[in-house]
Structures are given as C-alpha cells and as structure tokens.
TrEMBL record:
Organism of provenance: Actinospica durhamensis
InterPro entries (alphabetical): DUF4265 (IPR025361)
UniProt-recorded name of the protein: DUF4265 domain-containing protein
Length: 174
C-alpha cells in the first residue's frame, strides 16, 4: 500500500498498478470529502480522449459513482469535477478482515484472488485487504458473488457497490 500524506494536508489513495495503464496516461485527483472522507483524495489514472474528456484507466477504490472506462471532465485544478458518460461497468469493492489464524487468512485471500481470476474479471488491490473488482456489462460473475458472499457471511469481509452513491465533485471543484 502506498498512500501518501500531502505536506499541506490530506491523504492520497494511489493506484500502484492500474488495470489499463498505457505508455501515455494522465493522473488526476478526486476529492473524497463528498463521500465522508474529508482530507482524502484518490489519485486516478486517465486516458486522454482528445476532446477535453478522459476515460478512467483504473478501478476506483474510494470514489463513488465511477467505474473503469467512465468518461470524466477535469476542473482547472486537475481534479475530476464531472462525470460525462458512464460506460456500463460497475465496481464491487471488498474489504477483507485480517484473521488472527494465518492459515484461514491466507485461504480467504487465495479464495478472493481465485474467484476473480476464474471469472475473467479485472481487479486492483489496495494493500493486502482492499479489492476493487471491475464488473463489465454482461460479465459472468456468479463465482465472485458466491465467494465474496461466503467471505462476508463468515465475518471475514465487507462488500459494497461503488455506484451505491452517485459521483459528486467537491463543491469547490465546480
């Protein structure tokens, strides 16, 4: 995990290995204050669409209402300030609860990784416990839902959809 504290304040959630990283990408910030995370910012990777808009090249960990491939517009300060168009993808976010039993913990992590790979889905990990899974339209994600559901039922994790709330820019960005 490589979150960084900004010298002028704030914590920046970063994507170490964005799923659609290319030779030429842009990086922007999303102010997470509208989502109850004052003083925190998510650094997202973008593809320039050459018309003043950008497509998300990473799977958002913390920002609500955005997913891989969604088209956004930036404010003058480089922050994401508008969702222009959704691409139809959804983000399933899972927070694993570390178990004191190392064998059980390793099994939980392995099960999470295996179900994502076996479903052919993309994911990004933020440290060893937080997973953002890209669920494109029409994805056959039953194995992921079943496995993550068992993890949650066993008290070893929590999950949510990133579109449970709409994207909302910080008022100062608009």
């Amino acid at each position: 995990m490589t979150d960084t504290a900004d010298p002028i304040g704030g914590i920046h959630i970063v994507h170490v290995d964005p799923v659609e990283r290319k030779d030429s990408n842009y990086i922007a910030q999303i102010d997470l204050a509208p989502f109850g995370l004052d003083g925190q910012f998510e650094q997202v990777w973008l593809h320039d669409l050459a018309d003043g808009t950008y497509a998300l090249a990473c799977i958002p960990f913390m920002a609500y209402g955005l997913a891989l491939g969604d088209v956004v517009r930036l404010a003058a300060d480089g922050r994401v300030d508008e969702l222009v168009r959704r691409c139809g993808h959804r983000v399933l976010r899972v927070l694993l609860i570390e178990d004191e039993d190392a064998t059980r913990w390793a099994g939980t992590v392995d099960a999470a990784k295996f179900c994502i790979v076996s479903a052919g889905l993309l994911s990004e990990w933020h440290g060893p416990r937080f997973i953002a899974v890209d669920v494109p339209p029409g994805a056959q994600a039953g194995v992921v839902f079943d496995t993550m559901g068992r993890i949650v039922q066993d008290g070893l994790g929590h999950w949510e959809w990133a579109d449970a709330l709409p994207f909302t820019p910080h008022p100062s960005a608009v």
